[in-house]
Amino acid sequence: MQKSVCIFCDIDPIIASGHFWRSMRLAKQLAKEGAAVKIILPNNETAEIALQAFEKNFGVDGFEVVLSNHFTQLSDADDLFRPLTDDQLQDITNADLLIVDNYRVSKPQLAALKDAGHTVVALDDFNHRCLDETAVHAVINPSIEEHFIHDGDYMPGYGDAVVFAPGQKHLLPNELFAEHDHDPSNVVISFGGSDFGQIGLMLLQEILKEAPDLLDTDMRFTVAIPHVKVDDAIIQDLQSQLGDRLQIINRYKPQELFGTAGAIVCGGGQTIVEVTACQTPIAGVGVLNETQFVSGRILGEKGVAVGNLFGILAGDDVSTQMRDFAKAVIPNLRDRSRCKKLDPINPDGFHDLTQALLALAGAPPPQSTIADPYAWYSGDLTHSGIVAG
């Protein structure tokens, strides 16, 4: 019997287009595998433009695309993970599998959906808050799971939910990203949204402690922290050191932010997608968070990948550790003995990062001290801590 799949995916000027490309690619693959697929997108200009680009590059044959008016506009005060509204649920018809990309599903909604015979799956860029705080614990029916093509960028998530990792160049077509002139004095720091947003600011504090000579250069720092409340004391500290050389933004166009950067210090699934989409060469510094296996090679091609600077959070309490990651890990970067939960891949990564930035201020950045930071990765996820137990 043919399986039916319904995908909810948001896209607007605030939310990264990586979710759109992932869900569209998944819809196309599921249709290719024989499922009856309907993907529901917001009826807005951003979705229309992205849809045209996807159709031109990959085609939309074999599955149904619905532009719905039931999506609400995201405001500055909203979280990136918006609740799935009851109005949106009206768009669901018969579906064996319901996929929500970057959305919260409430407990009552989840119960009602399961009672109606839907299997619910949450897609998210390794931000476990989407799963932990929303009670989305999907049970994948083996007859449905066979429709999923791993394609080298698949990793299991918490509970029984399925998580797809971004990080492949072909996910985003070139024409969406115009070329810009690079500003070698502009360092862009971005770790996506949610709990990781403050990491960029905290990391910049540590960079300046390790390499105070950067204060005597013309280097400017643009820190992207979309939709995250951060500690005012951190901002005040950085402003006192950098003055107007510090810019903090919460809305940006990826092609302008990353496409003009002289260096990029980044991590997080959403940001990785945006960075890899920029087709212009980047004299970049790639700093990866604890889950970006696939993306490491991409950053390595674009500039200086200092390896997995933060290491791998291991143990059964990974989701709890993630919530405290920004506050607990960044101050410990320079003292590995205090990082009891870290399995360091590159103990010299922080030094490499600061040296690369110093070199960028006056000379081409050095090559990474690691030939292949991901050579150790054999595909066994139990070692990584991503799969609890």
3D architecture notes:
This protein has 389 residues and is an alpha/beta fold. The protein folds into two domains: 4-165, Rossmann fold, CATH 3.40.50; 174-383, Rossmann fold, CATH 3.40.50.2000. Helix content is 31%, strand content 18%. The protein is built from 14 helices and 17 strands. The protein has helices at residues 18-32, 45-57, 86-89, 107-115, 129-132, 142-145, 199-210, 232-242, 254-257, 269-277, 293-302, 318-323, 325-329, 349-362; strands spanning 4-9, 36-42, 64-68, 82-83, 97-101, 103-104, 119-123, 154-156, 162-164, 183-190, 220-224, 246-249, 261-266, 284-286, 303-305, 312-313, 342-343. The model is unreliable at 75-80, 124-179, 276-347 and 363-389 (pLDDT under 50).
